[in-house]
Structures are given as C-alpha cells and as structure tokens.
Design goal:
491 residues; 22 helices; Arc Repressor Mutant, subunit A
C-alpha cells in the first residue's frame, strides 16, 4: 500500500465563542447583586474604568439640560431605539485602534448609564444584629452555679445543638471529648435542659415535649405524659377517638390533653435561627399611566462608568513617541480600553434586553396586570423569544434571578411563565391560576370538615377547570398545604 500527501480545501461553519460574547452572556444571566459585584471587580482589575461621582453626575445633568434647551428643534438628530439586536460577539476586538477618534468619543463624560443616590440611609433604618441561640444559652450557663468541668461539658452540649435546638451528638461522644463519665455528662445535660427556651437540648421530639410539660406543671398529668410517650402517631393523624379508647378516658378529656400539647413548641430553637428577610431590589419597574403600562429599567445603585481621564491624557502624550517601552504602554492601554468599552456596551445591552423582554411579557400578560391572577395566561419562553426575535436560551438567561415591580406587587420574571390547563370550554388557563383557585377553595372550607382532593376536583369542574385528583394533590403539595385529614380541626 502506497502513502502520499495531499492538500484538500474544505469550507465549514463553526460557532466560536469570543471572549466578548462570553462576557455578554455572563452579564446577562447575573442577578442585580452579582452584577454590582462583577462591576466592582472589573473596576479593580482595569485601571481605565472609573466611577463618576455624585457631584459630576449632577453637573452633567444640568449641562445636558442646558444644551437641550439651547439646541434648535430642526437640528436635533433624534434616533429612538426602536430595536436592539441580540449580541452576536462578531469580531475579536483587534481592529486598528484610532487614537484621535478615541480622544473625541471618550471625553471626560464618556459612556455612562444609571443613576446613583448620594444620600446614605438613615441610622434609624439600620437593623441591629440579633442574639443567636448559642450566645443566649452561654449567657445563661455563665449565670448558673456550675463548676469548671460542668461548663466545659455544657459548652460542648450547646455547641452541638442544631438550628431547632436539638442535641445532635451523643452523650458518649461528648463525654469522650472532655474525658468525663457519661453519667456526669448526663447530669450537665439535665441542667442545660432547664435553660430558656423550654425544651432546649432535647434528643428527640418526645423528650422535648416532656421537658416542656414538666416546666408547664403538666408532668404529673398521666394523660399528657402517656400521649407524648406512646401516642404521637395518633396525635399526628388527629385520631383522638383512638387515643381516648386506648387510655380509657372520655373524648373530652383526651381533647383537653391534646390542646395542651398543641400549645407546646416542637422546635424551641427556631426563633433564634430564623433567617433575616432580605429586601428585593427589582430590576425593572412597570408603572401604569392611564390605560397603558410604562417600563422603567432600574439603574439605581449601579455605578456610572467611564474611561479614566488620567489615562486619556497619558495616551495623548504617548502619540508622538515610538520607543519600545512606550509602544508596550500603548498596547496595554489599548487592550484595557477595548475591555472597558466592551464591558460598558455589554451592560447597556443587558439593560436594553431586559427592557424588551419585560415589554413583551407585559404585552402578553396585560389582563393579569388589569384584572389579577385569575387572568394570567399560559406563557412559555418560545413565545417571548419569537416576539423579541431572540433565542430561547437568551430569554432564559434574562428571566433568571430578575424581579419586576408592578402595581400588583413584586414578582420574579419566571412567575409569568407556566404551563396551560385545558378548560371545559373557552381558552386555556395558566397552572398558577389553577393553584390560586385551589388555595381560595381551601381557605373557604369549614375547619371541622375540610374538602378532600376529590371535592376540590368537582368544585373546579363546576368552574370550567377539568383536572385529575392527582394533579390537585400535586399542586396542593407544591403550595405546602396539608391533606384534608391533617387540616381537620376538632376544636
């Protein structure tokens, strides 16, 4: 067999992700907080990027307004942004750099965006740090008459409590860590269990409730103790008649004991482990003006960027020299200018893309904004992508971790997308509207006789919504609503 070398010419198309396109995609899917963090990081790495101060912002707005008032209407070159193309990332940014045009295009003002509030929040709006469960228990232990060895064991016990206040480690493990007897560790545990909140440092639900019963003076109540010790499963299922029959007491006595147990806290440490609510800063505002809705992209809190005046002057001085060091300096500044320019353009493109997607959502869901959640229409990413002429993956990145402030509240952009449910007659209905109907039906039920899933199916069918019982059960579980057997209230 003979081998030979040949040259073949072949044309093929290949998708290449340029660094500029990768950066644009990354910025598009970031949340607001992540975007601010990314901008601050870029400002640290790129010395040509700088933030305009509040004084410069106010002076620029005044000068821009004065120029607008002095300019004749006939000579104004107004070009409204009717359409924004999707970022393609064509080109690698290596085109010949024109220093003279740069000095004209990127002056002291530069390409900026957003608005920054110079006023700091008032001190009375600051939230103080709350006391943790560990700090509260350690404070109580220091006030207790305990020896040095007991404090060491008690510290181990408190340090091994979970967020609900239950002891995660065994007494054998704690005793081995401090080189003490298991009985000594158990005595310390009993002292810690007398701390506030009641039921703390328990090793299970039964022990937690028994501790609270003792502190409430109910330890000697045989019915309460027996229910906690042996009938927690019946208590969960609200099978009070079975409890009364087993304990050989009347149903009324069993219900009184259950009422006392229901007043106890099964998670005594949760009040100190509650997560602090974080305020949501919307990415876009939808404001009603007459019969129409106006869209405002929220730029508050985003730094206004420009290319540094200091390096602009340096580049002007480097134009007449050609030695190696100055050529390297020009090359470095050129790369940083291109990176800064693309960052600013990518952020502007991100804001415009959010605006277009929000505009399309408002157009599709106008009935929701006018009449409420019952009129929320089924919507998928493909519908918005076809409307704004972008790819579905781009729409998915836009709606990810973005929030919209509307006259009906703050919603995540994903909220307006959902599957459809076939009506008996008429248009399809969104699955979120069906969930709202289920929630409304359950809120109107009688506590002593809650609706079963089959009852809810029949009531939805009367309203023109035909779904299966398992679908009702799935939606109910998604909303965190218990089944009818556990929603029933006897007293």
């Amino acid at each position: 067999m003979a081998f030979e070398l040949k040259q073949n010419l072949r044309l093929s198309q290949q998708l290449i992700m340029t660094p500029q396109l990768q950066q644009a995609i990354k910025l598009l899917q970031l949340s607001r907080l992540e975007l601010v963090e990314t901008i601050n990081q870029e400002m640290e790495e790129n010395p040509l990027l700088e933030e305009i101060s509040a004084d410069e912002i106010s002076s620029e707005e005044v000068s821009a307004e004065a120029e607008e008032n002095m300019q004749p209407v006939e000579s104004a070159d107004v070009k409204p942004l009717e359409k924004t193309e999707e970022i393609t990332g064509e080109g690698d940014g290596r085109e010949e750099f024109d220093w003279n045009n740069y000095l004209e295009d990127y002056g002291p003002v530069g390409v900026t965006y957003g608005r920054q509030d110079a006023e700091a929040p008032a001190w009375d709006n600051m939230i103080s740090e709350g006391e943790s469960l560990t700090q509260y228990l350690m404070w109580q232990m220091k006030l207790s008459p305990m020896s040095e060895d007991e404090i060491k064991v008690g510290t181990q016990i408190i340090g091994n409590l979970d967020q609900n206040g239950y002891l995660c480690a065994t007494l054998e493990e704690i005793a081995s860590l401090e080189n003490v007897e298991v009985g000594f560790a158990e005595n310390v545990l009993k002292k810690v269990q007398e701390f506030d909140p009641p039921g703390i440092a328990a090793r299970g639900l039964q022990e937690c409730l028994l501790i609270q019963a003792r502190m409430m003076g109910l330890k000697r109540n045989p019915i309460v103790e027996e229910i906690i010790s042996n009938h927690l499963k019946d208590l969960e299922l609200k099978n009070y008649q079975h409890i009364a029959r087993k304990l050989k007491v009347s149903l009324r006595e069993a219900e009184k004991a259950v009422l006392l147990i229901s007043s106890m806290d099964p998670k005594p440490g949760s009040i100190y482990a509650a997560e602090r609510a974080q305020a949501i800063i919307p990415d876009v505002y939808v404001v009603k003006a007459g019969d129409e809705y106006k869209i405002i992209v929220n730029d508050d809190g985003l730094p206004r960027l420009r290319i540094s005046n200091f390096y602009r002057e340096i580049m002007g001085g480097l134009g007449s020299h050609n030695n190696n060091e100055q050529e390297n300096g020009k090359k470095y500044i050129r790369e940083k200018v291109q990176a800064a320019t693309w960052l600013i353009k990518s952020i502007q493109q991100r804001q415009k893309t959010i605006y277009r997607v929000t505009e399309s959502i408002v157009k599709y869901q106008k009935d929701f904004f006018d009449k409420g959640i019952k009129h929320l229409k089924p919507l998928v990413l493909r519908d918005i992508a076809a409307d704004v002429e972008m790819h579905e993956s781009t729409i998915s990145r836009v709606v990810n971790n973005k929030y919209m402030h509307t006259p009906r509240g703050i919603f995540e952009l994903k909220y307006f997308f959902g599957s459809s449910i076939q009506r008996v007659s008429g248009e399809n209905i969104a699955s979120k509207s069906v969930k709202e109907e289920i929630k409304k039906i359950i809120s109107q039920e009688k506590p002593k006789k809650p609706y079963s899933d089959c009852d809810i199916v029949d009531m939805l069918k009367d309203r023109g919504i035909d779904i299966a019982r398992r679908t009702v059960a799935k939606y109910r579980e998604m909303m965190g609503i218990l089944p009818s057997s556990k929603r029933k209230k006897y007293f």
